Amino acid sequence: MFLNCLGMCCSKLTTNTNSSQRRFPTLIEELCHQYSLTDIRKATNNFDQKRVIGNGLFSKVYKGCLQHDGASDYTVAIKRFDNQGREAFNNEIELLCQLRHPRCVSLIGFCNHQNEKILVYEYMSNGSLDKHLQDGELSWKKRLEICIGVARGLHYLHTGAKRSIFHCILGPSTILLDDHMEPKLAGFGVSVQGSRFMPKQKQISVDRVLGTWGYTTTDYVMDGTITAKWDVFSFGFLLLEVVCRGMFYLISLTEKECLENPVEEGLDPIIKGKIAPDCWQVFVDMMVTCLNYEPDERPTIGEEEVQLEHALSMQEQADITNSNSEYTLLSKTIISLGVKQFDTEKIL
């Protein structure tokens, strides 16, 4: 089985723990509400398993109701970390307190009671993107709109704050959808905060394993450095998964099939015949460049955002003039997934 087609998360984390420990909890308490453990237990019916709506590597997420902005029955998502998730808790709360963007999930509060490390987020009623891709229920235009929203969120992380932030585990499971099916980035437990923003961002070296197989760049695997181009590669793989028949299809492919089969053969049946050829060409060109083996050859996420908006415009225009018939894609797109042979001992 080809590892770069797998969605198996690695188990070690890298966070700016020294910064978190130095500033937590005084600054954090000023920026978001602190709930008591009693409040959290009441909100989750004492962590009732029937309230579980998600599972992370070191956490469980519960649906609950808490007081917020004067409302006593405000629906929230409550993430409870286990003992191995303390670094992720510190990292996530520090980063989310800095983020203010409609395409990033909002942190409402936290609970830091002895061994209990808990974060409270806005509730995203439509869950994660991976479930919708597996169900095959999203139209082509909605998939494009979701990708545009994700690109906007990443663009903000890379350039919109005082320090660049690299998400590092971008994928359908860390993209949540609200009441209106608008995407928001989540899962910042292993995200890395870079230097103050500069036109050319510096590389960050890490000494622990990060990321998700398939979404992890080989440049990181080889030398342990992270730049914004890490997220760009992950975004390219996300584009591939959005049009293919989900991760279940991708992990079923052998290495040869991953490298040689045209993308068009693996299109989700629900979007076959719905994609305008001009729109598709722009879309696959973006995929190819994002998945380039050489980081410097990948575009910025801002450039991807602009190209996606152009692709959506082309699709809408084509639908106006060709509303009564299906589209035929004549191209055959081969994507190498940015893979070259490398010494697996360096990975392990």
Structural class: alpha+beta
Number of helices, counting only DSSP H or I runs of 4 residues or more: 13
Major sheet size, sense and barrel closure = 6 strands, mixed
Q: Give the proportion of residues in helices.
A: 25-40%
> Termini, distance in Å?
17 Å
Number of strands: 12
Estimate the global geometry from the Cα principal axes.
globular
Rounded Rg? 20 Å
Looking at the overall shape, the CATH architecture of the largest domain is Orthogonal Bundle
Structure characterization notes:
Keywords: ATP-binding, Nucleotide-binding. InterPro entries: ANXUR1/2-like, Kinase-like_dom_sf, Prot_kinase_dom, Protein_kinase_ATP_BS, Ser-Thr/Tyr_kinase_cat_dom. ATP binds at residue 79. This protein has helices at residues 17-23, 26-31, 37-43, 86-96, 129-135, 140-159, 218-223, 228-243, 246-251, 255-260, 277-290, 301-321, 344-347; strands at residues 33-34, 52-55, 59-68, 71-81, 107-113, 116-122, 163-166, 175-177, 183-185, 192-196, 204-205, 225-226. By secondary structure, it is α+β, with helices and mostly antiparallel strands. The strands form four sheets. It has a six-stranded mixed sheet with strand order 1-5-6-4-3-2. A two-stranded antiparallel ribbon has the order 7-10. The radius of gyration is 20 Å and the shape is globular. Residues 1-23, 201-215 and 338-348 have low confidence and may be disordered.
